[in-house]
């Protein structure tokens, strides 16, 4: 009798356990399938869910005018001493090109070149050598030169400064 009572009592526990795992397994399956479908949509593998942008791109591609290539204006070499605390001077040589949108802006930049050379030189003189070192320092220098240059040549806009040569001694 004790064996029969145990068998009947064990059966409902096993049924509760299997029913308790069912929502957990179903939830994991839904998450897995949802994640896979989301990833496929993000990668563009599901063409039916892209809001019809592929049809618009194919039709609009022939009507688009190709973008004009940017114009690069050569900046003469600049040699400046950096802001160093000791007696030993540190010099920097900078050769760069500035990127503008079109020829009309390139003419404005050429006309303002003395102002830009003064701006670049004075900014370099107040810069410390450790501020230029490394790729992060070079990027900060680029961003600062672009910002200051755009203020100096207000109607025109410089979109980027490309360093051809940047030597620190």
Automatic annotation (TrEMBL):
It is a single-pass membrane protein. Keywords: Cell inner membrane, Cell membrane, Cell projection, Chemotaxis, Cilium, Flagellar rotation, Flagellum, Membrane, Transmembrane, Transmembrane helix. The chain crosses the membrane at residues 21-43. Its main location: membrane. The keyword Cell inner membrane applies. It comes from the Bacteria. It is found in: Cell inner membrane; Cell membrane. InterPro entries: FliL (IPR005503). It holds the Pfam family FliL. Controls the rotational direction of flagella during chemotaxis. Belongs to the FliL family. This is Flagellar protein FliL. It comes from Pararoseomonas baculiformis.
